[in-house]
Description:
Chain A is an alpha/beta fold. Chain A has helices spanning 35-47, 83-86, 106-110, 131-134, 150-158, 178-181, 213-226, 238-253, 257-262, 269-275, 292-303, 321-345, 411-421; strands at 2-4, 23-25, 59-65, 91-93, 100-102, 115-122, 168-170, 279-282, 288-289, 307-311, 352-358, 361-362, 374-375, 379-385, 392-394, 396-397, 404-406, 409-410, 430-432, 438-440.
Amino acid sequence: MLTIFGDRSDSGFCDRLPRRSFLSIGGLAMGGLSLPQILQAESENRKNPSPGAGRSHKAVIMIFLPGGPPHQDMFDLKMDAPREIRGEFKPIPTNVSGIEICEYFPRIARMSDKFNFIRSIVGASGGHDSVQCLAGRSDKDQPQGGWPCMGANLSAVEGPVHPSMPAFVGLAPDMGHKPWADAGQAGFLGVTHSPFKPSGPGKADMVLDGISLDRLADRRGLLSSFDRMRRSVDSSGAMEGMDSFSRQALGILTSSKLARALDIQQENPRVRERYGKGIPGNVADGGPRLMEQFLMARRLVEAGARCVTLAFSRWDWHGGNFKRGREDMPMLDQGVSALVEDLHQRGLDKDVSVVVWGEFGRTPKINDKGGRDHWPKVSCALLACGGMRTGQVIGSTNRLGEHAKDRPVHFQEVHATLYHLMGINPKTTTVKDLNGRPHYLVDSQYGPMKEVI
Amino acid sequence: MFTTMKTQYILTIVFAGLLLGSDSPVDANEFTSLTVGPPGNDILRGADARKQLVVTGETADGWALDISSGASYECVPEGVVKIDSRGFVTPLADGEVVVRVAVTGQGDKPVVGEKKLKVENYVDQPVVNFPNQVVPIFTKHGCNGGGCHGKSGGQNGFRLSLLGFYPTEDHEYLVKEGRGRRVTPAAPGLSLLLRKALNLSPHGGGKRFGEGSYEYRIIHRWLRQGMPYGNTADLRVERVEVFPPQRKMPKRSMQQLSIIAFYNDGSYEDVTPMATFEVNDKEMGEVDLKGRVQVYDLSGDVAVMVRYQGQVGVFRSTVPLGVEVTDLPEPRNFIDTAVFNKLKLLGMPPSKACDDQTFIRRVTIDIAGRLPTAAEAEAFAVADAETRRDRAIERLLESGSYADYFTNKWAALLRNKKTKATYELGTFAFHDWLREMIHTNAPYDQIVRNIVAASGDLQSNPGVVWYRSVNKTEQQVEDSAQLFLGMRIQCARCHHHPFERWSQKDYYSYQAFFSRVGRKKNPDGLADAERIFHNRGKASAKNPRSGETLSPAGLGGKPLDLTPDSDPRQALVDWMTNPANPFFAPALVNRYWKHFFGRGLVDPEDDMRVTNPACNPELLEALAKSFIDSKFDLKNLVRTICQSKVYQLSSIPNEHNVRDKQNFSRFYPRRLNAEVLYDALNQVTKSQGGFGGVPPDTRAIQLPDAGQKNYFLTVFGKPMADSACECERSNDANLAQSLHLLNSKEVLGKISNENGRAGLLSRDDKRTEQEKLRELYLWFYSREPQSEEVNLALAHLGKGEKKAAYEDIIWALLNTKEFLFNH
């Protein structure tokens, strides 16, 4: 059975659930594949990867941390600051001499040579939304239709890797706070470039409900007999487009490449263990803590997605900052380190970029609830793979972690860097809005970070 | 390639052999004569002057082909000019010269032609004119484009005016900025300006030209002369001429262009190598940096936009298919005449006329935004064959569905969206009012006047609701121009329009019409229902660049002197609706043409400019004239279009017109719009929409709120009324659409509903299965099923439970392209 994690909203109370709650898709009884069969399937996949999948195209995985993670408690500990500011966490050394990060990221610390820690992200508009990270642009003075996010831009500029695999997939589920659930807007590029959301409002469409597989196969046969209109009639390619997506949709319902990519049960159990077992269900009005989605993202990218976005937990800790940090940081640590290690082991590290960030940082002074409040002045980000130069810290904040002291990095510089790593020149590539006016992918004053490329 | 013997002509293999493809209609050796163009303008002034010749060979069967790159050239006497193998002339000394051109013609005999040229003022090292000689170099090589130094803020600390529109500023930036570090007059080759351009100093833009090039020499000399601005401050380009302006070209052939710029002092100059060229349809051809056009394999029209120093010109090429067109149907109206003439010229035979079932479905979708009912389809099939098509058109035009559908179309463009709860009254009132206007066939100019020049409260004059959604002056300017004039003038808000002749002065003069729009709280206290009125005062707007105060002027029109009491918006509508206005009627007829044919005569339909010409200008002109003559009668326009034989052509291609995309030799199928598709789904399954806030039987095309959210509609690309562009509607396929159609609870529920079509048909035991299937086919496709289809369905029905079988059949039919597309 193909399973997709994460949806607890229609399952009732947690007590009554089995340890995992699943959405069942399709009806193939594939749960019982043995390890040799899995390995054989995997090796066949490696021998004959689908055209354009896996190693031969570039991709981005963007992990959004809803709520604004505390930059001074993660990768930029301020041990010189007074007690009211530096907090409870202690730094640990990493495998890059001179870089120290929070003690709750031990796995990342052991492989920090594969990461870039940006400590001086600036330019946040201060709103609680994923748009800040996904599109890097303010929501004021938008062109008609709105700004497209990075995934939509990639979908429009590069197109899909092959016709039946969506270029842009958004794994963030519905959340209580809607702007966090936004997996990316297509803006003026139009609905064709919206992310395909396996857990979005159309998620129920992926479930066969009341129709058996046999009946679906029957219907499929009827359809191909009745559907006689020749494609030569169409000069615009619209018919072919619909056919292609129809095939893929039917494939999802009967298990296909996209479906297989989403089905992490097919992955080697040891690999799954390395990513760790997440906790399904959203954290309050935020996102789920499912490191399995990181694995899913890797599989989607291998299957041909160019951009995968997902959201992890809820970091808006106005109270109990350190209690929550002790819960979530190790999980993030496990998931991100597993993803980066996995990409390296599979030889995808040159082709797939990973970025982990939130919409702003948090206040230096800890409030009376033991939490930190919103602080748009500065925040942090993690970059890895993509063929970057890694093992460095970029930028720094002042002693109290209040503002960027040197090398402020704007959200759009990170975007420009990611585009550059994908082989797209953000300074010359344009997309047209609804008025026919060309727009560059990032604002003209931002370019790729020279430290990294 | 010129000979040393004065009287000997070189007989070379004509380049035409390479020029023309193997299935070209022209035989290589058929030249009967040649002419050397462009005609006139044959003086080269100064040592920097240059000239591009265009050599045209005429053939026995009437083709005029470009052979500039394949002819042999000889200069008599030598030493006055030199000429390269592409016909590009550079002067060497003062004097007169005859350029003799030869080519192999019929029967291997030489065909010759000649052109007299004169070189004057050949002074060594003339003084460089900065705006007319240096700035074009920056434009040609992309230095001052929007991606580099031309953007506001420049690039890496160096800025130039966008596309060289303000040369005085450019001179200042280069010579005075940065303490003059960019120029070194004492040693010009060491200037940063040149070192960067050659990439001798690291340059983000790389190497733009080489050390021996013309550009290098001009800039080098300019530097050595002390960076003069120019001897005449006012000498500027008034217009550019493109030679030839149009040509019929065989497939895969080439055409060299020659561009001449005319200055305001009467002088002229060949600027071919410095002009920028751009093709309007990249699938049809390309153009190189020296102005040589290459067309590919597709037949049709392609245009090349030529730009130089803020002026534009266009070259139009027609690439015929060359098939003999013998049995064209008799034209019904001027649309047929214009289209068939074009098809004859192109040699592209049209497809046959469509059959009646196709027609009734197609015309009902296009006029009324819905599928015919089974009864309508049946009645049509048995009605009088001579008159039934015309009568169907009339019936549909009178129906409420026509009003619904076209109101739906306009309301989205007029941004009639219930953004907040308090907007509801206004949104519904505007929708109602607009529908009434369309249903009663109010003249189009009256409708526009009641929107653009609307004053009052929405309770009594709902047209003012437009001013609620479009509340900033720039939006009013840009939306009204895009919607009613078919022009995107947004670019000119901040700088001279890059593709058109509109300057900021034009933009702000147009904006002056909207400078006295007053708003007051609604006297009845309704929220978000402001009263719009003319704020007494003289209408004017300030050009932010020059500081000049501008009177209102229509685009390309004269500035108007209006009294403080007169509403300038009325003057704007007067200018728009004047029969002499070159934009208003063409914009509307083009928009409606696109509605019925899927592609405008100008495409995109709201980007009508000189540099984006119509694929059939005669037709566009005729349609506009007919529309104006009818006093802006919209129903008559629809009638004329739908009655034409062109509209009634089949979509099935013949062996020749499969790839035709712009000549309307057949109907181009397109997917049903989201609202139409949703209503069609409900109609065939006999279910309802279920939209909030409106009666339950409301159809999707009837929704008053253009921004109403609904998953089906969104995923199939319904626009959210966020812009004045029809391009906001997206009919492209995507995965979510397919999943929804194939497997959503919504769609499956409609199919399996007890009282839906499947349920009703399965429970009907008074009729045979064949009769029921016939009805089903009439619902879906407005036609009878063929016997194969009947057998297929009967076989399936025999398998098991009746209702489930009908559901399966309906599911399958719903997903066929014949259903989903308007063909």
